[in-house]
Each structure stands twice: as C-alpha cells, then as structure tokens.
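Hi there, hope your week has been kind to you so far. No rush at all, and the record is pasted right below.
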Amino acid sequence: MERQIYADNAATTQMSQRVLEAMLPHLMGEYGNPSSIYGLGRSARMAVETAREQAAAVLGCLPGEIYFTSCGSESDNWAIKGVAEKMAEKGKKHIITSAFEHHAVLHTCKHLEKLGWQVTYLPVGSEGIVNPADVESAIREDTALVTIMYANNEIGTVQPIPEIGAVCKAHGVYFHTDAVQAVGHVAINVKEQNIDLLSLSGHKIHAPKGVGILYMKNGIGLPNFIDGGGQERNKRAGTENVASIVGLGKALEEANFQMGPRNSRVLAMRDKLIDGLLAIPRTRLNGSREHRLPGNVNISFEGVEGESLLLMLDLKGICASSGSACTSGSLDPSHVLLALGLPHEIAHGSLRLSINEWNTPEDIDYILQVVPEIITKLRAMSPLWERICKEEAN
C-alpha cells in the first residue's frame, strides 16, 4: 500500500480534535447522570442543554424543538412512524416520498404499507431531483406527511427543499427531511424553509457515531418514541449519551463556521476529480452537477464491476464506496442509480468518492492517477467490456 486516502466521508467521518476535547471531560470526571439533582448531575444537564442550544442555532429553531437520538435512522423512524400514528386518528393514512430515499425512510414506509398506509414514491428523473410540482400533484385529502431527503447519500444531489416546504405548508401537510448528508454542507434554516421535522446524524460531520437529532417543530407533538423515564421532555426515555451529545453540539458549531470558504475549497477539488474521471471513455456522472453537495462524486464506468473496483482501490490505499455504506453487503445494484434510469449493468459499475476539507489537492492527483489504471485493467478482464467494444465497432 503506497499511501492512505480517505474518500468515503459520506459513509462516516473522522472525529475532529476539538470535538474530542469537548467530549473528554464527560467521559472521565464529569460523568454525572443529567437527571440527578446534585452538582455532578446538574453539570451534565447543563452540558446537554448547551449542545441543544448549539444545534438550535445552526438549524434556526428553538432549543426546545431539538430532541437527541442515537442516529439519523432512528430520527427518520420517529418522524415518519410518529406522524403516521398521529394522523391516522384523523383518517390521514397517505405518505409521499421519493424513489431514491435512504433505506431508513424507504423501509419505514414499506413497513407502514403492510399496516394499511398508502405511499406514493415520486420519480427523480435522470438528474436525481424531485420536482416540487410532482409533490403538489401527489398531495391528497388524506396525505399525512411528505418526506424528501435534503441531499441524496449516494449521488449527492441537493433537493429544492424550500420549494417543497412551501408546497406542504400551503396544503397543511407535515414536511420531514432527512438532512443527514446536507447538514454542515448546506445552509439550513428550518423556519425559513418550512421544515416541520428534520433528521441528522453526528458521524457525518466529525462527531462520534451513535448520536443524532430529530428537530420537531413546536406543536406537532409526536407520540413517545421510547417509553420509560422523562428524558427528552418525556418523549424518548433513556439516560442521555452526554459525551456524544456534547460532541455533536460542538461538531455542528464547527460545521457551520466558515461554511462558504470551506465549501469553495472542496468544490475546486471535487470539480477537478469529476473532470479527470470523465476523461475516461464510457463514463458518466450520476446526478445533477449543478445541484450537488460540494464533496460528492458519483461516476459510472461501463464494463466494470463496482466491487472489483473498490477492492483494487483499497490495495492502492484509497477508501471509497459504490453506494451507501448501509447496503455495502448487497449484491443488488443501487436503487438510487436505478431510479435515475440506469440499466443494471451500468449501475453495477459505480464509484462514489466523497471528499471533505481534510482532503488535499495531492489526494485528488493520486486518485486521478490510480483510477484510470484500474479501470483499464478491469476492462481488459471484462467480457461485458469486450461486448461493448464489439457493438461499438459494428
């Protein structure tokens, strides 16, 4: 292995030094239970509430609208199942989502379908963008919820969330967005963008794994997600993960600081990477180039199997993926790429490189040196590539 380059930040990120330093006291000396009334407990409670204020400041909401969870998937489940339960009492059992959501949303919707709810799965087109007009057309009298991700976890396309939020508000329908990939990379204000519920996860923004947030607009009052104690204003029982919550608050603060200049630097590296990879014959960029997260590159190479590509990249010290880390064990082609209209054989040959501010221009140069060599080698062994070449010759 010549060197190590981490280009899978959409899967998880390295914890930042400042986040770790903020957490350490609560892993050692400040170990009190936030529900205890003595000094050590009150100190822990203050730390949790400070993190709540930090999160609220980043999202543009009130601290009392922030609920700490274990991850983005839990937050998605709470939002969708909670609204479904609440609105079923009013005879509203219809949900609108998109065809390429994270599985935390799709599988939750499939679960509800088995219980009698109806779900509309909106198309995303070849660019991977949900059309707000399609959202409006799909809304019915019995629609309880619209749930559309802020940015796609595989192809990085950023959705027109303010416009979708405005449609939902006009029709009096709750709007939830999975913002796990977007937070820290896109300016979010839940009030201005008419977002009623929002999910995020710490480990995508240099906080630890195992901590997340559900923003729930005041007045929605979803049912309890975990019954037991009185934590999280009686909505989610269980002693708070204080150190990780503190880390998440700090990470959100850091992610929001100088977002513009940081994104500009990442964009320059991303665009160089896209242009360099598209110079390889028979390749395509998946998803909109314009409406895209700063650090996301998703390319399909014809005549190549994604798994083989990842293994050979690993031998060269490059960490990447061919889709979502949550489904990395699956041999099926990405549901996201199929939703764009790609045929199975092309969807199988995708590569996701997700970079951030910790990557360097030298990293990009190395990737652009290694990937073409590997593609050439894999295509030389591929019967599919041989067939493509023969068809092209004819």
Summary: The first helix runs from residue 17 to 27.
